[in-house]
Amino acid sequence: MYIYISNQTCFRYRLQVRALDTTGFVSLLLWDREARFLIGKSANELKEVLLENTRAIDEYSYPVVLNNILQRKIVFKVIVKSSNIRLHAEVNSVVKFTDEEQLIEKYDQAAHSDAFTDPDFNTNQRLDGEKECEVANFNTYGQDI
């Protein structure tokens, strides 16, 4: 969870979360930028808060600020690689996400039907899985990916 930059440690997030809806759950991998946005603090800031509160590095401490991501409604767009399918890997990388209420309502309603027919959701996905899906035309966090 860190890289070295000129004798200083720079912590970065690699956060695995479980998202669920009425159809089931999925494990998602959030990298630094996405996790920082959801948590509201950089990994370095989080580490500093932990050190201030515990006065020592305790690798088993739970930062309460992580509760910021619990019980939130978010729409995720993920990459499903061919290796995920072939190896039955259960963790998918997040390409982008949004917490815009309009999109949440739109896809929450679609979750109750058997198929997604919305053109924003069914954008030219590639079967080889190693390349990103085409970016949908709605305003979300991570649009520059």
TrEMBL record:
Highest taxon, organism lineage: Eukaryota
Protein name: Replication factor A C-terminal domain-containing protein
